Amino acid sequence: MICFSTDWSHSASRSRFLLSANSYSDVWRAVLPRISDTAVKPRIIVENARKTFKLRHTHSLKETFIALIRKKTTTSTFDALHDVTLSISPGESVALLGLNGSGKSTLLKLISGVLQPDGGKVLTRGRVAGLIEVGAGFHPDLSGRENVYLNAAILGMGKDEIDARFDDIVEFSEISEFIDTEVKHYSSGMFLRLAFSVAIHTEVDILLVDEVLSVGDEPFQRKCLARIRELHDQGKTLVVVSHDLNMVSDLCERGVLLNKGRVVFDGDSHSAVELMRR
Ligand SMILES: Nc1ncnc2c1ncn2[C@@H]1O[C@H](COP(=O)(O)OP(=O)(O)OP(=O)(O)O)[C@@H](O)[C@H]1O
Ligand SMILES: [Mg+2]
């Protein structure tokens, strides 16, 4: 999935309004009173974020009906994230670590604005590109070419800019042979190649990557990692989710360890990985 936003945005209402830098500064002070005006302003602020999902306990209309007659509960709620607080500065590279189901993807979706928090706040500053789910954000009936234009436009590029970068995007993806094929016929790796290529050819401030690299073949993964490092060297902010602990501790300076939806460690990535391996 490629998702994005520009300017100061509040994920809880990102689709409805984008705050200007001036109006944001008021919100900023309210959110983090300890940050002085002269301090470097974070790119991402997550403050006491909570995400609750509803769990169903019936499988059919009939079961639901019987449960209701017997006054049994048919649903319950589950907090995938509890009270998560984080602040990520420009140029930081952060690995989100944790066992399956610990809330990493949910947190990344809150930061990208795909999901909204049920409590607390999630704020981002700058343009966000998220590679969160393979194939999401692509229209299956459109060709690779058309999807490049669609995704790049969503990422804020104008037609002329896309025209100028189109060849580079396709060249990086190495799937030029299939660029006019409808993407519903693409393999997972082909989706990744095109989505990644579009994202890195756009002027983003924050890049979010959730495990999607794992569907790429080894040479392409190496190429992606090299490009991610270049983006980091250029001062972009990275948030990466991966179970490849060696790779993330090498790529990211900071590690945030989640356990059952709570942050249990936030420090250097090597210590986070050590804790994760215990
Ligand atoms: N849409 C949803 N509806 C109900 N529960 C959900 C939903 N999305 C996530 N969850 C639950 O939230 C919890 C956290 O899920 P999440 O995908 O964030 O975990 P994760 O840390 O990314 O795990 P993994 O390492 O397996 O990718 C899980 O228990 C999951 O079942
Ligand atoms: Mg996940």
TrEMBL record:
Family: Belongs to the ABC transporter superfamily.
GO molecular function: ABC-type transporter activity; ATP binding; ATP hydrolysis activity
Source organism of this protein record: Mycetocola zhujimingii
Source lineage: Bacteria, Bacillati, Actinomycetota, Actinomycetes, Micrococcales
Name the record gives this protein: ABC transporter ATP-binding protein
SUPFAM superfamilies for this protein: P-loop containing nucleoside triphosphate hydrolases (SSF52540)
Keyword hit for 4Fe-4S: no
Superkingdom of the organism of origin: Bacteria
Keywords, ordered alphabetically: ATP-binding, Nucleotide-binding, Transport
Limits of the ABC transporter domain: 61-275
The keyword ATP-binding appears for this protein: yes
Cellular component terms per the entry's GO annotation: membrane
CDD domains the UniProt entry points to: ABC_KpsT_Wzt (cd03220)
